[in-house]
Design goal:
This protein has about 180 residues and is mostly beta strands. It is about 10% helix and about 55% strand. Strands 1, 2, 3, 4, 5, 6, 7, 8, 9 and 10 form a 10-stranded antiparallel sheet that branches. A hairpin with a 2-residue loop joins strand 7 and strand 8. The longest helix has 9 residues.
Length: about 180
């Protein structure tokens, strides 16, 4: 009736990875999946590569670097073929990225062509990033977060919807127009 793993630990991605989880209710049309775990001091580039950039192509292992630590919990229902029932997804992700860099990222380079022509958008360094994400059904909510980088500071937060419209607010303070010597 159940497959379960507890405290599976390994060295991975240049750091450590630990996970516990289970799949239950094999006798029912929908099985229940749950997992929780953490990643500590991992190379974010290796994590993105290992997980095939989490199914998205905007930010990839080719242009991201830094040290990633996360803790997560996830649950959902699975069909008999083990495909996920999207409306049942639920989870939380705490994320910390130290010494983050975004390199050769074309969307940022487009901003440089328009606004900040004398700043180096090719290799953008970030202050430590820390945030919480909540998954409920097909909505991923992100708390309001300050992103301070070597080229500009902005705030971002909102909800990403997997199926339809996204509601993400990006605020760019006017103080970015002055060059910050630090």
């Amino acid at each position: 009736q159940r497959v379960k793993c507890e405290n599976v630990k390994m060295k991975a991605f240049g750091g450590t990875f630990q996970v516990s989880g289970s799949i239950e209710q094999f006798d029912r049309p929908l099985h229940h999946l749950q997992a929780k775990g953490e990643v500590n001091n991992a190379d974010v580039q290796k994590v993105f590569y290992a997980f095939d950039n989490f199914g998205q192509s905007t930010i990839s292992d080719h242009n991201l670097s830094g040290t990633l630590s996360t803790n997560f919990s996830y649950s959902s229902e699975l069909r008999k073929d083990f495909s996920i029932v999207p409306s049942t997804m639920s989870g939380r992700l705490g994320l910390t990225l130290l010494n983050g860099q975004l390199n050769h990222f074309e969307p940022l380079k487009r901003v440089q062509r328009l606004l900040f022509k004398r700043r180096n958008f090719d290799n953008v360094r970030f202050e430590n990033l820390q945030n919480q994400f909540v998954l409920q059904g097909q909505e991923l909510s992100m708390n309001h977060m300050k992103v301070a980088s070597s080229v500009l500071t902005f705030f971002v937060g909102g909800t990403f919807r997997f199926r339809d419209k996204t509601d993400v607010l990006v605020q760019i303070p006017l103080s970015n127009l002055k060059r910050n010597p630090n």
